Automatic annotation (TrEMBL):
Residue numbers bearing the 4-aspartylphosphate modification: 52
Record carries keyword GTP-binding: no
SUPFAM superfamilies from the UniProt entry: CheY-like
Alphabetically ordered keywords of this record: Phosphoprotein, Two-component regulatory system
This protein's name: Response regulator
Native source species: Roseomonas indoligenes
C-alpha cells in the first residue's frame, strides 16, 4: 500500500484530503507542522509527501530543504500544496527541493495524477 505523508496545519484540509486519499487505498500519515513533517518522514519513510508551504514551527520551504539534505529522505517525492500560485513561485518550490506543486484549492483528480507521476519518477 502506498504511504503518503500529509503535512498540513489546517484541520479542514487535512481531514478532507486524508479521508479522500484513504478511500482511494492510500495509507495516510499526518503531520501538522514542518518539524513534525521532517520527523515523521524520517520515521515512516513515506512513498510521497504532500507538504503545505505555510506551516508553523518550520515552514514547508525549510522542511523540504531539510528532507533533501538527509540521505535517508532525499529521494522521497515532495509535492508542495500552496495557495501561492504566482509567477515564479513554482521555481522557488522546485529550488527548495519539491518535485512538483499543487495550488489550493485542491483539485483532487489532478492531485492524484501528480501523486502517480511522482511515484513513477521516483521508480525510474
Amino acid at each position: 500500500m502506498t504511504k503518503i505523508l500529509l503535512v498540513e496545519d489546517h484541520e479542514e484540509l487535512w481531514d478532507f484530503l486524508s479521508r479522500r486519499l484513504r478511500r482511494r487505498g492510500f495509507d495516510v500519515v499526518l503531520a501538522h507542522d514542518g518539524q513534525q513533517g521532517v520527523d515523521v518522514a524520517r520515521a515512516e519513510k513515506p512513498d510521497v509527501i504532500l507538504m503545505d508551504m505555510n506551516l508553523p514551527v518550520m515552514d514547508g520551504w525549510t522542511a523540504a530543504r531539510t528532507l533533501r539534505a538527509d540521505p535517508e529522505t532525499a529521494r522521497i517525492p515532495i509535492i508542495a500544496l500552496t495557495a501561492h500560485a504566482m509567477a515564479g513561485d513554482r521555481d522557488k518550490m522546485l529550488a527548495a527541493g519539491c518535485d512538483d506543486y499543487h495550488p489550493k484549492p485542491v483539485d483532487f483528480p489532478q492531485l492524484l495524477s501528480q501523486i502517480d507521476a511522482a511515484m513513477l519518477a521516483a521508480e525510474g
